[in-house]
Amino acid sequence: MKARLTVLGSGTSMGVPTIGCDCAVCHSTDPRDKRTRPSIMIEYGGRVVLIDTTPDFREQAIRERINKVDAVIYTHTHADHILGIDDLRPLSFHREGKIPLYARPKSAEFLRSMFRYIFEADYKFGGIAQVELKPINGVIELFGARFEPVAVIHGDTEIYGYRFGSAAYLTDHSDIPERSFTQLNNLDILFLDALRHKPHPTHSTVENSLRIVERTKPQRAFFTHICHDLGHEATNRALPPNVRLSYDGLKLEFEI
């Protein structure tokens, strides 16, 4: 089945431009250097699935003219991946049933606590996002497609990336467990965290992610969760032909 992946956001947790920063990338006129927080949208068979809802989701949804969401899958519960949940409200008001939100059990419990005003609502005037949590422990079957959790290490925490058809999306990883590499074979598209060149305790570097690309050999690789250390054009010139920085609004076709 044909599918389209849209990069809603390609930036790090503080976004680019970063508040209060006067660096060259933050002042760049290249629109690909304007990076909102990291998320993707997958469209197939008339369905729309999001991975994460960032604090910039409202801006992203307006930019991409999103008029419905059929499901959201969460990687983990850091603020830059979940705080847009409230902006699902207008998309949840004009559909049958609640929008399902999929997350590993501990993440689902965190979301329930963090957004108690949604999940334990007693507000009689409405206006609350119509969503429901669905804890997951394995493969999710959504509208004829399989979303397979891929364990990655984010600092000292295990979180999920996902493989779906011939594509995989791994964000916020400093390491990939050996067992997860078996899930990354025969990929058309692979998204990897590549924060910057300088090492970071919770994120991959450009150099480390290039080693992962060399090992997994996808047809195309794209780096995401990019900070203001990396200018889009200059960085791309130094990358292999099948590897590129992603950017907000990038659209890719693949088989799901």
Count up the helices: 7
What is the helix fraction of residues, given as a range?
10-25%
Net shape: globular
CATH topology description: Metallo-beta-lactamase, Chain A
Largest sheet properties: 7 strands, mixed
Broad structural category: alpha/beta
- What is the CATH homologous superfamily assignment? Ribonuclease Z/Hydroxyacylglutathione hydrolase-like
CATH class: Alpha Beta
Strand arrangement, major sheet: 6-5-4-3-2-1-14
- The tally of beta strands, per DSSP, is 14
How many discrete domains?
A: 1
Arithmetic mean of pLDDT: 96
- What distance separates the N and C termini? 6 Å
- One letter per element, helices H and strands E, the order comes to EEEHEHHEHHEEEEEEHEHEE
User: Which residues form runs of ≥5 with pLDDT under 50?
Assistant: none
Q: Which key terms come to mind for this protein?
A:
globular, 256 residues, alpha/beta, 14 strands, Metallo-beta-lactamase, Chain A, 7-stranded mixed sheet, 7 helices
How would you sum up this structure, described in words?
The chain starts with a strand and ends with a strand. The chain has 7 helices and 14 strands. The chain is globular. The strands form 2 sheets. It has a 7-stranded mixed beta sheet with strand order 6-5-4-3-2-1-14. Strand 8 and strand 9 (157-164) form a beta hairpin. The chain has one domain (2-255): Metallo-beta-lactamase, Chain A. Helix content is 18%, strand content 29%.
